[in-house]
Amino acid sequence: SNSILRMSSATSGCTPQSSFLEEKDRFDCIVLDLEKAQHQCLDENFSAVMSASLAVWIENEVRAVSVRIPSVLSHRIPLMLQLEFDFHHAKPGYVLMLKWLSET
Description:
Layout: E1 29-33, H1 43-59, E2 64-70, H2 77-82, E3 86-91, E4 94-100
Parallel strand pairs: 1-2
Antiparallel strand pairs: 2-4, 3-4
């Protein structure tokens, strides 16, 4: 069953103390689309928010996280690589990056 992870939502004014609010899908995975309003975050806060979110998701037994990064936010790709995300696929206008949090 889908469970809502209890986190403060990140908005365009997200603070470094916040994390992304997202539901696990039927595979216990998280999908973030950085173009969606609820996933927007200021560049200076993005690293802290993503790190906090990963900690919450690990605690909540999320299996994997995929992040859709539009071309306009491609400057965030190096940070995602530092956080051990890898490239899944790319299409015109975006790249999808993936990180497995669970061995199963």
